[in-house]
Write a structure and sequence with these properties.
Elements lengths: L8 H8 L5 H8 L11 H8 L4 H14 L3 H13 L1 H13 L1 H9 L19 H8 L5 H20 L5 H26 L1 H6 E7 L1 H4 L9 E9 L5 H20 L10 E2 L12 E2 L1 H10 L3 H7 L3 E5 L1 H15 L8 H14 L17 H15 L11 H10 L5 H25 L10 H10 L6 H19 L2 H11 L11 H11 L4 H12 L4 H18 L4 H15 L5 H7 L1 H11 L4 H8 L20 H14 L3 H28 L10 H32 L5 E7 L1 H4 L9 E9 L5 H20 L9 E2 L12 E3 H10 L3 H6 L4 E5 L1 H15 L7 H18 L17 H15 L11 H10 L5 H25 L10 H10 L7 H24 L2
Parallel strand pairs: 2-3, 2-4, 7-8, 7-9
Antiparallel strand pairs: 1-2, 1-5, 6-7, 6-10
Helix pairs in contact: 1-2, 2-4, 4-6, 4-7, 5-6, 6-9, 8-10, 9-10, 10-13, 14-16, 17-18, 18-19, 19-20, 20-22, 21-22, 23-24, 23-26, 24-25, 25-27, 26-27, 26-29, 27-29, 28-29, 29-32, 30-32, 31-32, 31-33, 32-33, 33-35, 33-42, 40-41, 40-44, 41-42, 42-43, 42-44
Length: 998
């Protein structure tokens, strides 16, 4: 008798053997059914070796209770104690699967299948499973027989008799036998239909790949033909009836549950297409309409049931198409986009627990392997396996994947699939989610042999393996390219030059030979620099491939590396600062402008990191002006001073382009900026501030070099057009007006000469050919245009505007804002023009007609010959000119009464017009969307081509790059052009109403 307060020795022993509820276990051990063997140490040892001793004990008691008589119960008890193989198999299953314990309780004689093992039972195939299902005469008995076979597979699995690959293959073979049995039942129920047609069942997915889970949809495709002399349509209808009945036999729930769903959605046209097609119909579809992912799915196609000869004909007919899939345009991006879409569709709350679809999950390994198979399987038939692990091994053997990478991925895949198997085995439910309950995690960990601290060890191993997959699954595609050119130690198979070229073409490289030369130059040798490059390049190649011009990205990277390779910080920056390498890859492959700016001074690559280089956040005008003026103050003469100012401008232009590109494309750590208007405002503000600061520094340099501290005349610069509106693009000139006012006691002629010399020197110094881009100053918006004086006094402006100003000149002044020089003179100029641009009485009818006439004339005369007006972002319908003139007409009509309209910025004026009820919310949104899109297109063209343009490029790669900048994936430039036309058309409708009709 146990003393009060003390635990019994049995209680302690149960704890030691892994029971979590020793009290309940004691009661079960003391039950009548177990009484004869309850104290036998063999039983406790065996229970303690299972994944869940409590579950195993409970299942054993239920099985004993279900025995039909005492003799049967005694037979089971004796066998459990005396026969170790049965004991391990039976208790192993009961401790891992509550669902199979339920099956044994319902069918208590089925435990014998775990006892009677013939040699052939150790590794059964389709034939053995067909024998096991042979007695099934209806869907219910088929389910019972299926579970009986599943019981033997699970027993071999949990006892370690079979490894993961063998278990998955047995499950696929059992599925094959089950499909055949179900089809036989369907044929027996409809003999006339069976006699009329040939029906082949093609296994797809994991069943086709001979790597099935415990509980999974069994993916199939049906092929039907008429027997000789039969009407084809009738034969297909008969085949469809048989296929439908076969699917129901497997999928429907009966008193014995269901087997698994049979899923035919991988067929041509998916669930919208016919369930059964003839072979010729299948072939026609795949030749004309199939998408890349459909060929990827066919990698695993395998005839398993019905007319096997017809199934073999189907596979033979489609295989050539499968191995040509990598030649399709945008092949790799299509496959990668499909993978990203899968991840994006996982509920946020589940993504970290997803074994199959989550980042670092099973699908990452499978997609990577299938991608490589499709690229290289065209020429190497050894790669044409539907089984993931066999294909991975073949890829490693052939040198298409590094051996160490293949070993790590094999280990990770086996561990993750084993987790998936044991999770599903517990309830025989289709799930890929790692459980959250501690008891479930404990059982799962113990089932995988983690016994010391099952939960902690399980989570650590799971995270380690997913980390390996996340790190390797993309590198898998790129690292062998380096091994092919790196000239390292021999002894390991490598990609042949032809295979390397194949892979580069599949990645989108137009000149694979040049790409291989770049890789060889970067990665060859045994230096520390080459070793770091071999670490970086697999990832960089993936990022380059994710752009419209991978060749340009790789070439740019080689140039930057050649220029900076000997500096101590460059490769360290890319290796150690996570964002820098990806940012550089995005910048180098997005077009010509940013790489051109970078190559003028490659040290600017430091801006792409997150350290002391300042990062990618654009600097404000005050900061820029302070830096430029300080550089000017240190310089020896105006030329050196302006060279320094232009150097700052070039560096900051690069920072702005890089910020724009990274914000537009996003990175692995940060999503792309969703607000397109914010991107436009950031670029416009940054370039405008930079231009103003450069002009201020240049003005200071010219004045200091010629007059010292004080110019004989006060001098100011007024920004006009996009410059005054804080809307400069990358390719915009600086529209300005120059204003001066002689200082007291200075002769007006002397003052005018000084002012003109300042302007001419500024323009000369800012355009001198050098490594830095020129800054073009355009003063054509001055009074009298090109015929008028370049510089005027404030009084001269006042006299001109009072007597001669035309309506277009008043309209142009809506954008006027002081940007550099004498602030007080600039303020007085703005005060002078305010009544002109915001007339107190608004605009009369003649002025409105004149503005409309000028607009129509500009559209007809300035549109370039041959340009498509509907795609011209500046002058086309719904383009920048349409939106800006409409906004400016509202400003001139209502600006005197509506203070919010007194702004030089288009979007701010639109917002103010909406607030004043001059526009509806819909009109405002339509105009704003069109203006932002047109501005983005112009910025994109400059980024891609390196020169300004107002319409979409005609060259295919450039057009694709503009599309990528605007958020359109490979193959969708047509959608981009359609969307632009649609947006512009809607905006033109608003313009017609407000500008021409209001």
């Amino acid at each position: 008798m146990t003393a009060p307060g003390r635990r019994s020795s049995t209680f302690t022993r149960l704890l030691r053997h892994g029971f979590t509820d020793p009290s309940a276990a004691e009661r079960l051990l003391d039950s009548v059914e177990l009484a004869p063997i309850s104290r036998d140490p063999v039983l406790l040892e065996a229970l303690g070796a299972t994944a869940d001793p409590d579950l195993a004990l409970h299942g054993l008691v239920r099985l004993l209770e279900a025995q039909p008589d005492p003799t049967a119960r005694r037979e089971l008890l004796d066998t459990v104690i005396a026969a170790k193989p049965l004991r391990d198999r039976l208790l192993g299953v009961l401790g891992a699967s509550a669902a199979l314990a339920d099956h044994l309780a319902r069918h208590p004689n089925d435990w014998h299948v775990l006892f009677m093992y013939e040699p052939r039972d150790l590794h059964p195939g389709v034939e053995e499973f067909e024998d096991g299902l042979a007695e099934a005469t209806d869907p219910v008995s088929l389910r019972v027989a299926y579970r009986r076979c599943l019981l033997s597979i699970a027993a071999r699995d949990v006892c370690g008799t079979t490894d993961l690959s063998e278990t998955a293959a047995e499950l696929a073979d059992l599925a094959t036998a089950t499909l055949r049995a179900a089809l036989a039942l369907a044929r027996a129920a409809a003999p006339e239909d069976a006699a009329r047609c040939r029906l082949a069942v093609i296994a797809m997915g994991k069943c086709g790949g001979h790597e099935l889970n415990y509980v999974s949809d069994v993916d199939v495709i049906f092929v039907g033909e008429g027997v000789e002399g039969a009407d084809e349509d009738k034969a297909v209808r008969s085949a469809t009836k048989l296929a439908s009945h076969m699917m129901r036999i497997c999928s429907e729930t009966t008193v014995e549950g269901s087997i698994w769903p049979v899923d035919a959605n991988l067929r041509p046209e998916g669930r919208n297409g016919p369930l059964v097609r003839t072979l010729s119909s299948h072939l026609a579809y795949y030749q004309r309409w199939a998408k890349t992912w459909e060929f990827q799915a066919l990698l695993k196609a395998r005839p398993v049931a019905g007319d096997i000869d017809l199934g073999e004909e189907y596979v033979a007919a489609l295989q050539p198409l499968v191995w040509k899939a990598a030649e399709r345009e945008n092949f790799v991006p299509d496959v990668q986009k499909m993978r990203r879409r899968v991840v994006e569709n996982i509920p946020v709350a589940e993504v970290e627990r997803e074994l199959k679809l989550g980042p670092g999950g099973l699908r990452d390994v499978e997609f990577a392997v299938q991608l490589l198979q499709l690229v290289h399987g065209r020429a190497d038939v050894s790669l044409r396996s539907g089984t993931t692990l066999k294909a991975l091994q073949a890829l490693a053997t052939g040198g298409y994947v590094g051996r160490s990478d293949a070993v790590q991925l094999d280990d990770a895949y086996r561990f993750l699939r084993s987790m998936e198997h044991r999770i599903q085995l517990y309830r025989l439910r289709r799930t890929h989610l790692v459980p959250e309950d501690q008891a479930d995690l404990r059982r799962l960990g113990r089932s995988l042999g983690l016994r010391a601290d099952p939960v902690t060890e399980l989570i650590r191993e799971w995270k380690r393996h997913t980390g390996v997959v996340r790190r390797l699954h993309e590198k898998l595609f790129y690292r062998p390219l380096l091994d092919a050119v790196a000239q390292l130690a021999s002894g390991e198979a490598r990609l042949s030059p032809e295979a390397a070229r194949e892979r580069l073409v599949a990645l989108g490289y137009a000149d694979p030979a040049a790409a291989l030369r770049h890789l060889e130059a970067l990665a060859s040798g045994v230096s520390r620099k080459a070793a770091i490059q071999r670490t970086l390049l697999p990832v960089l190649l993936g990022w380059f491939a994710d752009s419209a011009d991978p060749d340009a990205g790789l070439l740019g990277f080689r140039k930057v590396s050649d220029a900076l390779g000997k500096t101590p910080w460059y490769l360290r920056l890319l290796r150690d600062e996570g964002a820098a390498a990806e940012n550089l890859a995005r910048v180098l492959s997005a077009g010509r402008l940013a790489p051109d700016l970078l190559m003028r001074a490659p040290e600017a690559v430091a801006l792409l990191g997150d350290g002391d280089g300042g990062g990618l956040e654009p600097r404000g005008r005050a900061h820029l002006e302070q830096e430029i003026l300080a550089a000017v103050g240190r310089a020896d003469g105006a030329l050196q001073a302006v060279t320094a100012a232009r150097g700052v401008r070039r560096r900051e232009l690069f920072r702005t382009t890089a910020t724009d590109i990274v914000g537009t494309y996003g990175t692995e750590a940060q999503q792309a900026e969703a607000d397109q208007g914010a991107l436009v405002d950031r670029v416009g503000g940054a370039v405008s501030d930079l231009t103003a600061a450069t002009l201020a520094g240049t003005l200071r340099a010219v004045v200091g070099d010629n007059w010292g501290e004080t110019l004989p005349t006060r001098f100011t610069i007024i920004g006009m057009g996009r410059f005054g509106g804080h809307e400069l693009g990358y390719g915009s000139d600086a529209d300005v007006l120059f204003v001066h006012e002689p200082r007291e006691g200075v002769d007006e002629r002397e003052a005018s000469q000084a002012a003109n010399k300042v302007v001419s020197e500024m323009r000369r110094l800012l355009q001198i050919p050098s490594a830095d881009p020129p800054l073009l100053i355009d003063a054509d918006l001055r009074p009298e245009g090109k015929s008028g004086p370049l510089v005027r006094t404030l009084k001269s402006y006042e006299a001109y505007y009072r007597r001669w100003a035309l309506v277009w000149e008043a309209q142009a002044l809506l954008r006027a804002e002081h940007v550099a020089g004498d602030e007080e003179l600039g303020r007085r100029f703005v005060e002078l023009i305010d009544p002109l641009r915001y007339p107190p009485a608004g605009l009369d009818d003649d002025a409105v007609r004149e503005i409309r006439r000028l607009k129509a004339r500009m559209e007809s005369e300035r549109m370039p010959r041959g340009a498509d007006p509907k795609l011209h972002t500046k002058l086309g319908p719904g383009g920048l000119s349409d939106v800006e003139w409409t906004v400016q007409l509202l400003q001139m009509r209502h600006g005197a009464q509506v203070p919010g309209l007194r702004t030089t910025r288009t979007r701010a004026a639109l917002t103010a017009a909406r607030a004043a009820d001059l526009l509806t919310a819909e009109e405002t949104a339509t105009l704003d969307e069109a203006w932002v899109l047109a501005t983005r297109v112009r910025n994109a063209v400059m980024l891609v081509r390196g020169r300004a343009g107002d319409t979409f490029p005609s060259e295919v790669r450039e057009l694709a790059a503009v599309g990528r900048y605007l958020g359109y994936g490979p193959g969708h430039v047509g959608d981009m052009l359609d969307d632009y036309r649609r947006t512009a058309r809607r905006a033109r409708g608003v313009v017609d109403e407000l500008f021409y009709g209001g």
